[in-house]
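Morning - G3I inputs below, output right after.
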Amino acid sequence: MREPNSRLDSLKLMGGSALAVSCRAPAAWASTALPSLDNLARAKGRRFGSVIASGDCLGGTVANGGYAQIVTSECSRLVAENEMKWQALHIAKGEFAFDRADRIAVWAQSEGLTLRGHALLWHRARWLPDWVNDFDYGAHPARAAEALLVDHINAVIGRYGSVVASWDVVNEAVNDAADGYEETSLSRALGSVEQVLDVSFHAAGNATPKALLVYNVYMSWEPEYAGHRKMVLHLLEVFRKRDTPVDALGVQSHIQISRLDPHTGLGPYEEKAWRSFMDAVVGMGYRVIITEFNVRDSALPTDLEVRDAKVADYARRYLDVMLSYPQLGDIMAWGKVDRYNWLQNFAPRQDGLAVRGCPYGSDHKAKPLRTAIATAPMGAKQAS
Ligand code: G3I
């Protein structure tokens, strides 16, 4: 088992300009008296972290003083929202645009925070650059695809390996709609999706032998993901059979209240099926990470108090299950503040109000969801 890097090596990427913060909005953050989510997680051997972006001070970015203060107070690990994706980094064959990811890496390092790397390969044509989708692999496509993939992975890990403790080596290779794999130009050239995954994990393992290597999935305990769960178990089994060096399953955990279960008044979930899935995952020797936690609230009523209580209740039920597994490591939130969260565009509410799926509201004040996250580790199993 690989151990996450325990320290940040010096990252000599850019000059001091990378650290410049373009604005310092006053934080309404009022939780300084509370133990941080990271301290609470660490008491049980885990870490708490969040996504962050590199844009201007109006977003959930390193430049937004209010957001940055919440993140540095609550987290010990960050993940770049888009900046380390192939589309953002590798703009033409062999040509890289590292500036935005550098900004996050240098800032994290200056704050004493480690990073998760997301993602060396998002195996969906939609999220690969056009030049990869249209790539001419020539007379020896398998060889050319392997070289392209390995060169990309080596370049990204070569740049950020010293500050990244854990990598999403491959994100989302399974397609639940078709009950199979996502194909891309890479999988067609290499002959199969499984071959793409194998090459990716071996390349990552060679480039960064100490980091945790993660396969990251978007499904979790909702009933509609039964087929996807089955495919993921199949894939995890294939990894073991082929000796593919995969250490952990990343469960994104964008949990959903997009319709209501009449028994609970919350989003539908299948605890029994989810526990057997988790049992099978850890039974194969994998660790588990919550990589992108937040809550979709589109089916909940407008009333803020009711909505916040139900979001917290639903999250707590999910976290209680996840934290009962000692194999669970990091817990990463996909956004700490509602206002800047991807859900506002991706799953907007019909009443036009902000989705309240993050631990902090748009006013930067802690919500019941934060309390749910803070109190869940108390009864949790110690991470192994
Ligand atoms: O930066 C451009 C801006 O210049 C342009 O004007 C605007 C117009 O559409 O687009 C902006 O880029 C958007 C980018 O987010 C930054 O906001 C892209 O269109 C948009 O597609 C992109 O969405 C990201 C999405 O992944 C796709 O990469 C979300 O921010 C990000 O939160 C989301 O994250 C994913 C994880 O990587 C994997 N798991 C699911 C999760 C949510 O979809």
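Note: The longest helix spans residues 141-160.

O.
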